[in-house]
Amino acid sequence: MLRHPDARGFGTTPLRSRAWFDNPASPDMTALYLERYLNYGLSIEELQSDRPIIGIAQTGSDLSPCNRHHLALAERVRDGIREAGGIPIEFPVHPIQETGKRPTAGLDRNLAYLSLVETLFGYPIDGVVLTIGCDKTTPACLMAAATVNIPAIALSVGPMLNGHYRGERTGSGTIVWKARQMLAAGEIDTKGFIKLVASSAPSTGFCNTMGTATTMNSLAEALGMSLPGNAAIPAPHRDRAESAWHTGRQIVEMVRADRKPSDVLTRTAFLNAIRVNSAIGGSTNAPIHLNAIARHVGVELSLADWEEHGADVPLLVNLQPAGEYLGEDYYRAGGVPAVMGELYRAGLLDGAALTVNGRTVADNVAEARIEDERVIKPFSRPLLAAAGLTVLSGNLFEAAVMKQSVISPDFRARYLSNPEDPDAFEGRVVVFDGPEDYHERIDDPALGIDEHTLLVIRGAGPIGYPGGAEVVNMRPPAALIRAGIDALPCIGDGRQSGTSGSPSILNASPEAAAGGGLALLRTGDRVRVDLRAGTVNALLSAAELDQRRAEQQANPFTGPPSQTPWHEIARNETGQFAGGAIIERAVKYQRIAQTM
Ligand code: FES
Ligand code: MG
């Protein structure tokens, strides 16, 4: 890359955009590059003035309503960039909308990652503002920034306002599970169902519950990749626009300081984020996404780290689905800085971790205090003593996770009440092959599902159901719900929506379609779960398992056919959930902006 030792204000660090716009070694190409960016109104003076070109990676669009408010926020980002001396260039990111994308938005995270890597690498961009929000948009953007490694800062779109229905808070995502149960029990009709569900989403922004969106936006902040306080400001709130302006100013400073993702996304930062994930009651999608970001930036991180560093961290945030409140309450109670302040003062965070503003975690949380103890609990009085993930293994899979915060007193009483064996339960399984099979048969009385049944779903991992389906949180048959049983333990190789409070063992790796043991299970088998030992085992002899494996290999489980080119490519290239479900061959491309 061309070096500009006398570049104004940027020390000895050259701007990579100079290779396009001011390259004495290649004046003809410089002219061509300049000409195309001049043609909408930029000037030669600007483009050759040693001002950094700042990309605004725009994830909002009419197809992505959760992130749509970024279209408005980008104006304030531009103002901040201009004010600090940069030149904003906004461009679209492949759209992802969690609930609208078929067959699943999980497929699009890696696609958005690939296309953003290509954009950031191949165009004259010195630094980038990542507009994050809806579930997969956050990891897709952070993964791409990790691979390319140009200065990058995340701007959250913020949660929606709180939903209300007949005087009660209704949370986006969480209300759907409740509404489905009410519909199944005949308490509401279809019209009432729609009205109840829609009440939970009253404004622009991402889901207002502690689902995957709030989780990942909180963790982007915990990782140090966004400004302190950024995650929780509700989308329509005036503070959100102000944060956008500060973010625009900050990215210009980051380019000046050459502060890159690899400086922020260290193993220390990931371990801090794991602890924050427990304290907020974060989504079970978090380990998939954080492990993916870590692998792209070259940091060692495994599911074992989640258990070792996160399992014993208490739950502090009282948000649905684990608790009562919603996004507006989270913000007013102090948001992520308040949570991190509690953890830091309790000695659970490494305060030395660097963040995008050039300050450390310790600096950022020094003044942070809880503003409402109903919503964010002090460390000394948590909602739950240990809220992290339990990692399980056995003869059905090498690794699966269960969120400890969903083990409710009701679940404990029903399944973990044997005084001789207080951490274990076993039951007969009913096995479904993919989401369609489950939807078709769940209410079939012939399955004999009762309150002791374990529901199993397979063919729902990244290969079996391209992208991986969010289906492991299966509702019991309607008849059982009417009898008062509103959740059964579930096991599966798919994911679960971050807004579900269901007691599920999920993300099983390897999945059935990749030769995992779930493929061998049959309805009627018995499975034993031991939460203390961290094991899940089918109670079958080794000989029986071997025989079934031989049968299975003769007739392998393939899942539904691919419907688009990307379905097929993704199935061939994507690894398992335990390893972040990334494009495995992408890992060898690291810090690629520095290779130019
Ligand atoms: Fe987009 Fe929840 S569906 S944030
Ligand atoms: Mg989701």
What is the topological layout?
Blueprint: H1 18-21, H2 27-38, H3 44-47, E1 53-58, H4 70-83, E2 87-92, H5 106-122, E3 127-132, H6 137-148, E4 152-156, E5 163-165, E6 168-170, H7 174-184, H8 190-198, H9 212-222, H10 238-257, H11 261-264, H12 267-280, H13 286-297, H14 303-310, H15 327-332, H16 335-345, H17 361-365, E7 389-392, E8 399-403, H18 409-415, E9 424-433, H19 434-441, E10 454-458, H20 478-482, E11 490-492, E12 504-509, E13 526-530, E14 535-538, H21 542-554, H22 565-573
Helix pairs in contact: 4-10, 5-6, 6-13, 7-8, 9-12, 12-13, 12-14, 12-16
The site of FE2/S2 (inorganic) cluster has 10 residues, from loops.
Domain Dihydroxy-acid/6-phosphogluconate dehydratase N-terminal: 51-364
GO molecular function: hydro-lyase activity; iron-sulfur cluster binding; metal ion binding
Domain Dihydroxy-acid/6-phosphogluconate dehydratase C-terminal: 375-581
Question: What can be said about this structure in brief?
Answer:
It is built from 22 helices and 14 strands. The chain is of the alpha/beta class and 596 residues long.
